[in-house]
Structures are given as structure tokens and as C-alpha cells.
Amino acid sequence: MRRQRSTKIVATLGPSSASRERIEALFEAGADVFRFNFSHGSHEDHAARFAIVREIEKARGRPIGTLLDLQGPKLRIGAFAAGKVVLEPGRPFRLDLDPTPGDASRVQLPHPEILSVLAPGAELLLDDGKIRLRVEAADPSAAQTVVIAGGPLSDRKGVNVPGVVLPIPALTEKDRRDLAFGMELGFDWVALSFVQRPDDVAEAKRLVAGRAAVMAKIEKPSAVERLEEIVDLADAIMIARGDLGVELPPERVPGLQKKIVRVAREAGKPVVVATQMLESMIANPAPTRAEASDVATAVYDGADAVMLSAESASGAYPVEAVAMMDRIVAQVERDELYRVYLDAFHASARQTSADAITQAAAQVAHTLNSACIVTYTTSGATALRAARERPDHPILGLITRMPTARKLTIAWGIHPVYTEDAHDLDEMVQKARHFARSEGFASPGHSIVITAGLPFGTPGATNLLRVAWVT
Questions:
Q1: Which residue among 7, 275, 297, 378 is the active-site one?
Q2: Is 35 a catalytic residue?
């Protein structure tokens, strides 16, 4: 099954998409990668859905990517005696370590690591930013604040501390258990939540130990400040606009989205745009026009993938949401302005044979109007370099390791096919011709452009460019 688009779709699985029939329908509708949100659901739930995805993959003969999204350090207040209070602007409100149920004057904040770094003037955001508090005084046991923006506040709502790097790890004990479980199952990607510093990514990669690729979620201002370092360490980036939009003014998020996409593209790392893309389709069969434009913007910018969260996990129209996203992406990529926007930025070529070959392959394919660019790859590096060029012809990735084929399902323009490696140049050309025909890219008489590394099976050694004709 060949997708008629280059930008990939990530769909989150959940209660609305738990059955074999529903997951298969999501795949049919356009999902390339399935996200498993470990903030919700049991290990048993995730294992059952994971097994279904692998069954569908085997039945369809096409690699399907899986993404384990770790919960990360969720910071929450304690409980209230009445279950809910109303905070009035201008009134004092105390946050402390006392587990006694709170009231309109105080509540527990069971995170001494937050209290230890607060200073007068700092802001605390509660319940996704609906409640705003300004710190007047703080010590390691309590913080006295004044309510800046008030309203109703109920038990265990989330806490954000913008502008402060918190002395907490990105991986909690729950995350470590979930990660160990996910590595046993065989997930392809691990998404790391609430990254603050490059060290967070390094720690995750140490624990993953090469068994999966690591995706850093950019949702903290501190991560934006060290973006280039984080992109350099991570295997991919997710722009998690939910928390990013809570901790930063909403008007800054669109520009940051474009910046993050460009930095990731420059580095040749896949970048996923996520959160609230078709939010209204949780309850409605069609999106708003603004949501359609939002998805389109990410596609025009050259993002590798766009993601659905609650729309496919718990909404009333999960399959329709994926189908709608597929339609929007395909329509944008047919637009005559798409290439204009995409070509407005080109990643800088490094002085390596691999970059020279892949850049030349894109130009040769354009000049000859070839059916596709065929990349032979073991580690995925050759195919990702080809995708970094954003060529105007599709990329057929012939991949000798199934884990690599699954990983590349998230990357722009790559149609991954799992196959054994070629033993010599003649076999390489024959395989390329065969799969170009069988996967629906080429017919007899079409040219194809082939890139590979010699000797065969050497990861990252792209040093060969060949033009062949399909017979």
C-alpha cells in the first residue's frame, strides 16, 4: 500500500481505537505510525494493542511504526476538602507540603523540588494556565502567592512553572518501568516528555541503549533555549504545542513551531507537529476551517509528520479524523505553492560524500523526471539524508533491518520496504527495478535514481549514485 503523500500521519491509540477492526481502519485511513500514550492505560492494554498493530503489519506486508510516549514528571497540586474551590484575583494563596486537604487559602504542592527553586516574582500556572499565581515569598517548605488570574480549581490539577529549570529528571520511576516494558515489547520510537536540557535526552538514550530511537518533545521554554543541542542529541523532535502554549504566550507558539521545524530539517532529524490539530473532531465529524489551516501550515513548512491525540484515542470520530488529516495533507502537497514553500529552505550540505551523493540524487531525479529515488540502507542514515533534501520525487527505501524500516515510517517522503541486502551491483539494480515496479512507483521505460553505500551493509557509507531504467 503506497501513500499518495510525503508527510506522515501519527495516530494515538486509546479507548476509541482498541479493537483490531478499528486499528486496521485507522491504518487504511492513513495512519503510518501508532502512538501509545503511557499517561493513560495499563501495560496490558498497551500490549494488546501493540500485538494487534504487529498482526496488521504482518498481514499487510508493510512496516508500521510504533511510538511509546512516556508520561514524564507530571506536577500536580493536592486535594481540596470540598473537591473544588474558587480563587479570587488579588487574594493570597499558599502552596505547601502539608497533605491536609486544602481550601480557598491553601493547598498541598507535594513537590519540594519546585518549592526549593521558587523566588519572588516567579509565576505558577495551574490547570493548563487557567489559574495564574505570582510568588511573593518562598522557602523549601512553602510558597506564598497572590492570585493573578482566578477561577475554579479542583483536585490534583497540573502545575507549570515557566521560566524556571526545575531540578527534576525527565524520567520518573514510572517512566523507567514503562520504558523497560516497552523495550521488551519492541517499540520503534520512545518520546521523552518535558525535556528541559540535553542531559535528559542523553539519559534516555543510555537507558534505551539502541533498542529504539529517541524523540525529544519540545514543550518547555528551557528546551527551546537549548534547542540546537537537544536536536543534535535526539533522533527526532516532537513539537508538543499543548504545554508549550501554556508556558509561553500563545502568540509565540506559531513562530517557534516554524523555527523548530527548520532546525530539525537542517539537522536531518524527523520533526512531528502535535497537539490539537483537529481538536473539534473529538466530538464533531468535521474540523473547523482554522484546524484544517493549522494542519496545512505544518505541511507547507515541511514537517515530517502531523499527529492526532485525543481525536483518534478517545474521540467519537477516530477513523474520520485520520481520513480528514490524510485528505488535508494530500491536498496541500498537490498545491502548486507547496514546492515553493518547501524549496524556500534547503538544509546546508556538509562536505561529505554522503551529502554530495544525496543532493546530487535529488537533482538528477528532477532533471530526468525519474519515477523515484531508491535508497539502500541498513541504519536508515542514507534514507534520512535523502529525505533531508525534500526532493520533488518519492523516496523508495530498501531497508535490510525491519526495526529500521519501522523507524523510517515517520520520516518525510520515505516509503520503507524490508528486504535482504544486495550482494553486488547487478543485484542491487535488479532489486531496485523490481520494487519500483511492485510498489507502484515505476513502469517499464521509467528511470530511477539509486543511492547506496559500498561495501554493502556498511551503515552510513553513502558513496554510490546510479541511474537505471525499469524494464
A1: 275
A2: yes
- pLDDT tens track for 101-160: 999 999 999 999 899 999 999 999 999 899 999 999 999 999 999 999 999 999 999 999
Please name the residue that has the C-alpha cell 518520546: 191
- pLDDT digit string, tens, across residues 322-343: 999 999 999 999 999 999 999 9
Question: For residue 103, how many other CB atoms are within 10 A of its CB?
Answer: 12
- In this structure, the number of other CB atoms found within 10 A of the CB of residue 182 comes to 27
User: How many structural domains does the chain have?
Assistant: 3
User: Of 107, 140, 160, which residue constitutes the final position of a domain?
Assistant: 160
175's grid cell = 517512566
| Rounded (5°) CA angle 17-279-31 | 45
Q: What type of residue is 235?
A: D
**For residue 461, what pLDDT is reported?**
72
Domain that includes residue 417, residue range: 353-469
431 carries an active-site annotation:
no
Residues in the chain: 471
Catalytic residue among 3, 5, 8, 35: 35
> Does the active-site annotation cover 94?
no
Clarify whether 62 is annotated catalytic: no
Catalytic residue among 132, 205, 217, 406: 217
In a domain, 156, yes or no: yes
Rounded-to-integer distance, Cα 67 and Cα 53, Å: 12
Please give the model's pTM, rounded to 2 decimal places. 0.94
* pLDDT, tens digit (0-9, with 9 covering 90-100), for 169-211: 889 999 999 999 999 999 999 999 999 999 999 999 999 999 9
Phi, psi of 73 (to 5 degrees): -75, 90
Are residues 287 and 193 part of one domain? Answer: yes
